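re: that chain from earlier
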Amino acid sequence: MIVKDITNYIEKLAPLSYAEDFDNVGLLVGNYNTKVTGVLVTLDTLEKTVDEAIEKKCNLIVSFHPIIFSGLKKLNGNNYVERVVLKAIKNDIAIYATHTALDNSNNGVSAKMCKVLGLQNTKVLIPKKKQIKKLTTYVPYSDANDLRKSLFNAGAGNIGNYDQCSFNVEGKGSYRGKENSNPTIGKKGELHFEEETCITVTFENHLEGKILQALQKNHPYEEVAYEIITLDNKNQLVGMGMIGEFSSPMEEIDFLQFVKSTFKTGCVRHSELIGKPIQKVAVLGGSGSFAISNAIRGKADAYISADFKYHEFYKAENKILLTDIGHYESEQYTKNLLVDYLTKKFTNFAIILSEENTNPIHYI
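^ sequence. v structure.
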């Protein structure tokens, strides 16, 4: 296997197009064509992480957080970021980061939090916009069925719990081939009218390359007429955070103790108790204060996330129990998720869970 084989599989779970605009995801250090000897999965890539990879003969580090976040202007080893990059390059170790691409995945960070907590009937808390595109093309009536099947096989036409979705209108198209044309139907230089089907399908934007490849390969015309537009529709299966329910409600103190134990955190900060049982819970790994209003609108009894500031706890307004469990703690099970996912696919070399605790925050 080469690095590209591993990263292609990761991107089935967390396509890079899912990442937020501010983020830096993908292969940060190394070459996609490098043969892989082993994979070390970690939450953060620090110097001790690279040392662990060297010790365990892993030349690919799959990290949740990107070690390179903002631009590097120098590589002198003057800070921990530069030292990590230099050590990785010196030892031919590639570094790949998923970050918000995995945050927005339907089976990503928040889904893992829900699973650990035992939440049921889960759904995305903040569905992501501009993740759906629409293709419209025109094909001779006799070829429409085969082309539709090809587009479906490439991933088009999936809407929620339905697949093979399309809209089709029959009409008459016209064209005239110029001097250098070689028309499949009709004659060069002559105006031709053809009974055609207008096919419209939607698809997730990371599939655009596959969709266009299927279109060009299976369309009979020499020149294929098509249009692609990006929709404002929210993708209900892609986005930040999740919301779900316990099978039975918990008293608030029991809930807080359960969360503290489940996430093995030294400290749980929370807003004022709201005086009602907790059953519906929203979660979001990492810094999640921006989603407090979404959790309230979703009628969650509690919201579990991290990095809430002092004044943000006031936003609870006795409507929700805000629960800050710590940044590292909220995302700690992400590396287990990635190891389990990769191990099912790649069995011919080691997929290793990093033993290093990279949490920069300590409690007394």
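Residues 4 and 32 are 5 Å apart (CA to CA).
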